[in-house]
Amino acid sequence: MSELTPEHLEPKRKAKMRVKLAAQVFNARVSSAIKTISVVSDGKKLGKCTVTADFLAMVDNFFDVTSGPEGSVHHEMFKEMGSTLTKWKLIHKKDGSTHIPPCVSGWIDNVKVIQKLWSVVQELGNKQDPLENLFAIVRQSCGCNRDPTCVQFVAAMKITLVNKLSASNINCKNCVDDEDTHLLSENRHFAYPRKRVHIS
User: Within a 10 A sphere around the Cβ of 62, how many other Cβ atoms?
Assistant: First the structure.
């Protein structure tokens, strides 16, 4: 009923930082699966997990709102997100103390920044997403490497700046075109014409 694997529930090393795994855990499908099992079994199985299911659905909704398309209701949801996220507190297993982890406080900051950026973009009259297009062509420079290190990402970025940004076609992107001029000229314009040397 879901795509969960042991890697999702007990991630190791780099897997702990994979956003994809987190998004698949905090997912509406997982929430629906928990509720379905609870209802079908008359609460005998996962009966006490309905609160967890509601929490998973809420986080999934927050994910969708953060990356929602233009014209959707996600702008109205940002206020609710900010208010809800400030109430989240995690409990340490060892001593029972509560704290707000960096991921939550960072998410709160991101919501505020998104709202500010959107207002600035609206004032400029630009509703496109060139940053997403930049990351799309950086990913293409990495080839089949879906999990580059910092060094590999920097190398791909350099390749992009020198070679790829001059291209007019960007494949596998998740946003609309910039509709802007190329940041760099084609590579052929960088080459100096060879001078003929006459040897006497």
Answer: 20
- Residue at 13 is within a domain: yes
Q: Give residue-wise pLDDT tens across range 69-103.
A: 655 566 778 888 888 888 888 888 889 898 888 88
Total structural domains within the chain: 3
* Domain span at 83: 70-126
- pTM of this prediction exceeds 0.70: no
60 within some domain: yes
Question: Could you write out the three-class secondary structure of the chain?
Answer: CCCCCHHHHCCCHHHHHCHHHHHHHCCHHHHHHHHHHHHHCCCCCCHHHHHHHHHHHHHHHHHHHHCCCCCCCHHHHHHHHHHHHCCCCEECCCCCCEECCHHHHHHHHHHHHHHHHHHHHHHHCCCCCHHHHHHHHHHHHCCCCCCCCHHHHHHHHHHHHHCHHHCCCCCCCCCCCCCCCCCCCCHHHCCCCCCCCCCC
- Tell whether 196 is covered by a domain: no
Q: How far apart are CA 188 and CA 181, in angstroms?
A: 17
Give me the residue label for tokens 């707000």.
100
